[in-house]
Amino acid sequence: MQRSVTTKSPSAAPTSPLQIADYRRFWLARFCAVLASTGMVVIIGYQLYDVARADYGMSIAQASFQLGLLGLAQFIPIFLLTPVAGVLADRMDRRKLAGSAAFLDSLVAIGLAVTTAMELRNLPVLYAFGVLHGTVRVFVRPAMGAIAPNIVPAAMIPKAIALNSMAMQIGVIFGPAVAGYLFAWDRPLPYTVSAVAEVVAAIAILSIRNMPPLHADARKAHPVRQIIDGFHFIWKERFLFGCISLDLFAVLLGGATALLPVFARDILQVGPQGLGEMRAATAAGAAIVGVILSFRPLSKEVGSKMLWSVVAYGAATLAFGLSRNFMLSLVFLALLGAADMVSVFIRGSLVQLRTPDDKRGRVSAISGLAISASNELGEMQSGVAAALLGATGAVVFGGAGAIFVTAVWAVLFPEIRRARTFEQHY
After folding, report:
1. I want to staple 201 with a disulfide (CB 3.0 to 4.6 A). Which of 33, 36, 192, 391 is the partner?
2. Which CATH number is 19-206+222-418 given?
């Protein structure tokens, strides 16, 4: 497989992905895209919940259910378009695909800024923009996920994955926190900032220079055949399939993020600023672990470490649901993020190291679909559970469910328990 990074002598070899100019551009693009996206998602969710409560007179349970419907509305385009996005990431220039999608997302952010400034406070408008944002995001993830292995040497992929995750988590830290404060100051402002960040991301990703050419047969196979091949590859890789499906079901059950507006407004009563801080706390825990992993990547007993990290994720979720102290809640959210980061690192390393480059777009898309299903459908599950059990009951139930699913997967996929290291086949 061709590599874009070459060296003339051993002394010239980079020791960190950040020494590679193209990777620095990629890192900036990933950070800005996540910063913009998470800020938009948090404010859309808060606006929708607040409008449902204040303007439509809904109860807490009814407004919580609206958050679940928002998650479902965002997931539908992701479910329908992810296979297409994966094929496109393997058939065309990944830089152009990711850059174009980031630019389109900036237009979505501008639309949200305008409608917010015009006081168009109604659920249909917020649902519509939520769907548009979800649609654009479909095409960013597989293209971005497949670019990094093309611009760093194979030996640096684990470090690059840790740095990628750190960029994402730093964006998740600052995106919601900054958006929450900006929204409290001037309601259209967080969307304006997101639009600017998306434009920066588009420019950075399009400026990457050294990418290998498309594989000769990239456009020869029928697109439907390519989609099927991507799913078949994951099915054959039992460890890969087990890790992706574990993350899907554990986060789907244990995701407390969707209900944070409920905790911020009505349970902990800390408002939009507190909501941003809660979202930032989760990302802060993940970012700290990401920094550690960028210097000391996991390499041994990766399977058991992944299982225990998901157990810790479920336990932290359960504890957060029971907490009524804001500072203690932030601690539990930080622990939740730290545990999730370990799982993200292992799954990301596995996807990149066990996938040939001509399939990376499709496999990244399928992995992204599982992540989106766990996030957006998790929001739907949380909204329904909150309507039936209350917000606290829903979060506690989800945390316990994540622990239960991990125990089941440890039995169904012994390959995960037995995995000692990442084996690079390609």
Report:
1. 33
2. 1.20.1250.20
